[in-house]
Amino acid sequence: MRIDVLSIFPEYLQPLNLSLIGKAVTDGVLHLAVTDPRDFTTDRHRTVDDTPYGGGAGMVMKPEPWTLALESVVRAGGDAAASSCARTAPEAPETAVPAVVTNPAQTTEPGAATSSLTVGKHSAAPVLVVPSPAGEVFTQRIAYELAAEEHLIFACGRYEGIDERFIDNARTEVRVRPLSLGDYVLNGGEVAVLAMVEAVTRLIPGVIGNPESLAEESHTGGLLEYPVYTKPAVWRERAVPEILLSGHHGRIERWRRDQQLSRTAQRRPDMILALDPAQLDRADLAV
Ligand code: 6GU
């Protein structure tokens, strides 16, 4: 998978170098690059934003630098897909590069095609995620959908957002998905992108060490996870629930399921209402 992030604060995305995502990049499972729209400005002040038409507080991101940045990463993704299609011999392992690569403004070579941004015949158009509190709420289901894509692009607006014409124009080249983390307001999309990229990339085969740990976690079976315990069996006079030391696998499974049900009912009654009744057994109904 290829992930491009457009941000005027590339340093904000540095945590993507760490841990499992950083390793996925070094392993070549994931290609990750951050592009700064400011590198696509031509004025002396490298202006990326301006005051909103119609008045109001804050600043709005200008469409031109954002579109040039988007076009450069769409083109880069298309080129990479085309060259990997053409290749028949197995690829040599890539040399180690910094996990987050900053894409410098590419000055177009004379004679190079600038208008056509067609991607390879066999690859789908990239998905442009626009993080915004005005978006559809990002869920585990959406994380799975995005994990199946070849090329994701995240456009991190700041302040009051990006000029709507950037998004309207982008629809001619990419599939646009405005996504929100939830009902609260952040200063910009960067922190939301850290969360979404982590949720998506951990679903890519080869990124997480143990794929079985994906199956059991919260939000995969429609219920929250059961509580977990480790040694010592008694800690500060608090004992681990006896059932877990009993060795009765069937009873332990039942206990965990009951914990999931009561915890979900208490914390997330909306999830209980959304359950498929066909997925409940007789014992579930006794909780
Ligand atoms: Cl995705 N962006 C911003 N700026 N604020 C948010 C959000 C996203 N999700 C919740 N609040």
From TrEMBL:
Cell location: Cytoplasm
Superkingdom of the organism of origin: Bacteria
Class in the EC hierarchy, top level: transferase
Keywords linked to the UniProt accession: Cytoplasm, Methyltransferase, S-adenosyl-L-methionine, Transferase, tRNA processing
Entry EC no(s): 2.1.1.228
Reaction it catalyzes: guanosine(37) in tRNA + S-adenosyl-L-methionine = N(1)-methylguanosine(37) in tRNA + S-adenosyl-L-homocysteine + H(+)
UniProt: S-adenosyl-L-methionine binding residues: 157, 181-186
Gene Ontology CC: cytosol
Span of domain tRNA methyltransferase TRMD/TRM10-type: 1-76, 124-272
UniProt keyword S-adenosyl-L-methionine, yes or no: yes
UniProt keyword annotation of S-adenosyl-L-methionine present: yes
One Gene Ontology MF term: tRNA (guanine(37)-N1)-methyltransferase activity
Major subcellular site: cytoplasm
GO biological process annotation, one example: tRNA N1-guanine methylation
Protein purpose: Specifically methylates guanosine-37 in various tRNAs.
Family membership: Belongs to the RNA methyltransferase TrmD family.
Subunit organization: Homodimer.
Protein name from the UniProt record: tRNA (guanine-N(1)-)-methyltransferase
Gene that this polypeptide is encoded by: trmD
